[in-house]
Amino acid sequence: MQRRAAIKTFAMSIGSTLVLPSWANAWSKETLHQSDTLLSTSQEALLAEIVETIIPKTDTPGAKELNIDKFVTLMVADCYDAKAQDTFAKGLIAADDIAKKEYNKAFVEAEPAQKLAILNKMDKSGTDTEKGFIRLVKNLTIQGYLNSEYVMTNLRVFEFIPGRYHGCVPVKAQTGK
Question: What's the superkingdom here (predicted)?
Answer without folding.
Answer: Bacteria
